[in-house]
Design a protein that fits this description.
With 289 residues, the protein is an alpha/beta fold. The protein is built from ten helices and ten strands. It has a single domain, classed as Vaccinia Virus protein VP39 (Rossmann fold, 3-Layer(aba) Sandwich). It has an eight-stranded mixed sheet, with helices on both faces. Strands 2-3 form a two-stranded antiparallel ribbon.
Length: 289
C-alpha cells in the first residue's frame, strides 16, 4: 500500500496536465472575494528535488517539465496559461536551472490569498513527516492544515466549507485497486453534502479495467446530481506493452466556463512539446447540466 512515492513522477507529463488545470481552477474561483477552501486528498511531500532521490532515479521530468522548457526555449509558441504554469514552477527555483518541482501543495500554497485555507491529507508514514517539514517552511503555513488521515473517509466531514466555496483535488495513486471504489463512494458522499463545489479528479490511464471504466462511472455519478463536467486526457506516447505511464486524465465537476477554452489553447502545444514518436493526442469534452 505504501510503496508509491510521488517523487518518482515529479514533473512528469501527468503532473503538467494536473497542475495546469489546477492553477486555472484556483484563479477562476478567486475572482470572487469570498474565502476559498482547497482540499488536496493525497498531498505527497509537497515539493521534490529533481537532482537526487526518487525523481533522479525515474527521470520522468526529462519527458515532462524539462522537455516542455526545451520546447519553449527553442522559440516554439505556446499558450499564456502554460507560461503562467511555468512561472509558478520556476518560482521554487533559484537561477535558470530547474532543480526542484513543486507538487500540488506548494503550487496551491503560492496561490492562496489571506482569506483562503488549504487542507492537505497524506497517509504515507514517511511522506507525512516530509510534508509537515516542507509546509513549515512556507510563509503561508498558518493557512494550511496537514492531516495524517484517510482523506476518503474524512472528506465529507469537511464539506461544505464555512464559506460555501471550495475546490477539492482528488488524486490518489490508484496503486491499490480499491482506490477506484473508495473514490466513487467519497465523491458520492461529497456531492450529497456540497453539490456546488468544484471537484478535480486526476487519474492515470492504465490497461486495467478499473482505469478504463473510471470516466464513464464518474459521469454516471455526476448525472445523478445533475451537475456539469469537463473531461480531458493527455497522451504523450502510444506504445502498447510499454510499462511507463503514457497518458493521464482530469475529470472536473462544476468546471468554470473558462476552463474548456483554457485547455483548448494549451493542449495542442503540450502534445507538440511532449509527444513521442507521433503518439501524442488529447481529448477534451464537456457537458453542461
Amino acid at each position: 500500500m505504501f510503496s508509491y512515492r510521488h517523487a518518482f513522477h515529479a514533473g512528469s507529463h501527468a503532473d503538467i496536465l494536473k497542475h495546469l488545470t489546477l492553477i486555472h481552477l484556483v484563479e477562476y474561483l478567486q475572482e470572487k472575494p469570498g474565502a476559498l477552501t482547497i482540499i488536496d486528498t493525497h498531498a505527497g511531500a509537497g515539493i521534490y528535488s529533481l537532482k537526487d532521490g526518487f525523481a533522479a532515479v525515474s527521470k520522468e521530468a526529462e519527458g515532462g517539465i524539462l522537455k516542455l522548457l526545451q520546447f519553449i526555449e527553442a522559440g516554439n509558441p505556446t499558450a499564456q496559461s502554460v507560461k503562467k504554469y511555468l512561472e509558478l514552477i520556476q518560482a521554487e527555483n533559484v537561477g535558470a536551472e530547474l532543480a526542484s518541482y513543486p507538487g500540488s501543495p506548494f503550487i496551491l500554497a503560492r496561490l492562496l490569498r489571506p482569506q483562503d485555507r488549504l487542507k492537505l491529507f497524506e497517509l504515507h508514514p514517511k511522506e507525512i513527516d516530509v510534508l509537515r517539514h516542507n509546509v513549515s517552511q512556507l510563509k503561508q503555513e498558518k493557512q494550511i492544515d496537514v492531516y495524517a488521515e484517510d482523506s476518503f473517509a474524512r472528506l465529507k466531514g469537511l464539506l461544505p466549507p464555512p464559506s460555501r466555496r471550495g475546490l477539492v483535488l482528488i488524486d490518489p495513486s490508484y496503486e491499490d485497486k480499491q482506490d477506484y471504489r473508495y473514490l466513487e463512494v467519497a465523491l458520492e458522499e461529497a456531492l450529497q453534502r456540497f453539490a456546488t463545489g468544484c471537484y478535480a479528479i486526476w487519474y492515470p490511464m492504465l490497461s486495467r479495467r478499473e482505469s478504463a471504466a473510471l470516466p464513464d462511472r464518474l459521469k454516471k455519478i455526476v448525472a445523478s446530481h445533475q451537475r456539469s463536467w469537463l473531461h480531458t486526457e493527455l497522451r504523450v506516447e502510444n506504445a502498447p506493452g510499454e510499462r511507463r505511464l503514457q497518458a493521464s486524465g482530469m475529470f472536473i465537476i462544476n468546471p468554470p466556463w473558462t476552463l474548456e477554452k483554457h485547455l483548448a489553447e494549451a493542449l495542442p502545444a503540450l502534445t507538440k512539446a511532449l509527444g513521442i514518436n507521433g503518439g501524442a493526442q488529447f481529448l477534451l469534452k464537456s457537458f453542461e447540466a
